[in-house]
Design a protein that fits this description.
The protein has 123 residues and is mainly α. The protein has helices at 10-15, 27-122. It has one domain (2-94). The termini are far apart.
């Protein structure tokens, strides 16, 4: 990303040669200073590259977390819809169970009444 905005590379700085004038700078001092600039420049490029990698990883993680959040929201929505339906279903089940109990216990009572009647008739 920043590579397009940076004009010089550490190699460009290292290979730069200046014309010498009679009243120019001391070459040794210029070379020492440029060595420091090259070292800093390399560090900056390393830092930028590491930050770009970290940024890409974090963006990927953010996208994954957003997707996970969407999935969780959908799950919660589905669960809440299902719980609403299951409450109605639970009420229906309880009503059905009650009717079945009446039928079963009612028929047992009827059977026991009939068997008592039959016993009385047999006597």
């Amino acid at each position: 990303m920043y590579q397009n905005k940076i004009t010089l590379t550490p190699q460009d700085i290292l290979e730069k040669e200046f014309k010498i004038d009679t009243r120019g700078y001391r070459l040794k001092e210029v070379d020492q200073f440029l060595d420091v600039v090259i070292g800093d420049y390399e560090q900056f490029l390393d830092i930028i590259n590491n930050l770009e990698k970290e940024k890409a990883e974090l963006l990927t993680e953010i996208m994954n977390l957003k997707q996970e959040l969407r999935n969780s929201k959908l799950s919660v929505e589905v669960a809440s819809n299902n719980s609403t339906r299951s409450e109605v279903t639970n009420v229906d089940i309880i009503k059905r169970l009650s009717q079945l109990e009446k039928m079963v216990y009612g028929s047992k009572e009827n059977e026991s009444k009939q068997s008592k009647k039959e016993d009385k008739e047999d006597k």
